[in-house]
């Protein structure tokens, strides 16, 4: 679907004009949105005389957020985030002196909100194309926050879920790695967008007014805050991961210590049993009336003494994780 909105010199709003009609000198500025266009609709991009490389960036694979300058316009590649999956969704934007053209293969609620607001709020009609670009960037960044905060809340809940059975620890570890993967995907969007905002603020070709620079600086500050949130959340997940690994290691050490104690106690007992299991004929103890009971008592005494010795050495004491 291709939709458009135009603002004329006599302060009228015109909607859904043909591309050719947008070149009317009575139009102050216009915005054309290619919303999930078909192949036939996407070919309409060529009517704006955009550079073929920029058009290719729109039509094909997912691009990294960037800003390219051409003779009479700037080309932005922006990223929205799917609120359910956290996957990046590309939004391509052409900004000229009196127009904005946006192109996206997926439905973007951020674009819909700005498009509807431009139509209904008269104060925005005279703002111009740089302000429309600002509003789109602002909405994109605003919708990053719920995703980052949701991940932060999940990590905060996990901090109180220490201990538990081995199965619970395994499930929590899987959740930690799942969160870290999502944080990494979010990071791959936030960092390039932060660099993009820095380029916009320091660009001499976009010719932003002082007020517009203040607006873009506000977006840059929000992205910096998001970057800080992601870094701190990743650090917390790393701490939780290390904590659970320590718990698992401590449990493994306890099991190994128990097995070691049992094995060590049974070593002399097995030695004695092995000697009297050889069945040689001339073994004096075999004919002694109390030989069997003596050997059992000796084995029990050895086991008990070894138990007391291990206990005195502190082998049965376990530190709390």
From TrEMBL:
- Where does the signal sequence lie? none
Q: One cellular component GO annotation, for this chain's record?
A: plasma membrane
- Which Pfam family, giving just one, matches this sequence? CorA
Question: Where does the record place it?
Answer: Cell membrane; Membrane
Q: What is this protein called?
A: Magnesium transport protein CorA
Protein keywords: Cell membrane, Ion transport, Magnesium, Membrane, Transmembrane, Transmembrane helix, Transport
Q: Which CDD domains match?
A: TmCorA-like_u2
């Amino acid at each position: 679907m291709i939709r458009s909105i135009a603002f004329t010199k006599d302060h009228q709003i015109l909607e859904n004009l043909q591309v050719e009609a947008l070149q009317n000198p009575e139009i102050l500025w216009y915005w054309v949105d290619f919303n999930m266009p078909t192949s036939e609709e996407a070919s309409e991009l060529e009517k704006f005389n955009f550079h073929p490389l920029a058009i290719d960036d729109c039509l094909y694979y997912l691009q990294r957020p960037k800003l390219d300058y051409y003779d009479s316009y700037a080309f932005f590649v922006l990223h929205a985030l799917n609120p359910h999956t956290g996957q990046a969704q590309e939004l391509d934007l052409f900004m000229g002196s009196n127009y904005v053209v946006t192109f996206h293969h997926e439905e973007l609620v951020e674009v819909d909100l700005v498009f509807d607001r431009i139509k209904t709020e008269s104060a925005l009609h005279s703002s111009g194309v740089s302000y429309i670009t600002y509003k789109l960037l602002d909405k994109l960044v605003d919708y990053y926050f719920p995703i980052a905060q949701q991940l932060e809340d999940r990590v905060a809940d996990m901090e109180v879920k220490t201990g538990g059975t081995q199965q619970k620890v395994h499930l929590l570890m899987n959740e930690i790695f799942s969160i870290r993967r999502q944080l990494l995907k979010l990071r791959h969007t936030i960092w390039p967008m932060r660099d993009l905002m820095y380029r916009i603020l320091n660009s001499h070709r976009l010719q932003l007014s002082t007020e517009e620079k203040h607006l873009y600086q506000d977006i840059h500050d929000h992205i910096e805050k998001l970057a800080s949130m992601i870094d701190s959340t990743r650090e917390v997940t790393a701490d939780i991961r290390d904590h659970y690994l320590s718990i698992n290691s401590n449990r493994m050490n306890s099991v190994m210590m128990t097995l070691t104690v049992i094995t060590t106690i049974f070593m002399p007992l097995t030695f004695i049993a092995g000697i009297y299991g050889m069945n040689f004929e001339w073994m004096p103890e075999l004919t002694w009336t109390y030989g069997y009971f003596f050997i059992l008592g000796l084995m029990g005494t050895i086991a008990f003494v070894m138990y007391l010795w291990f206990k005195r050495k502190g082998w049965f004491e376990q530190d709390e994780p």
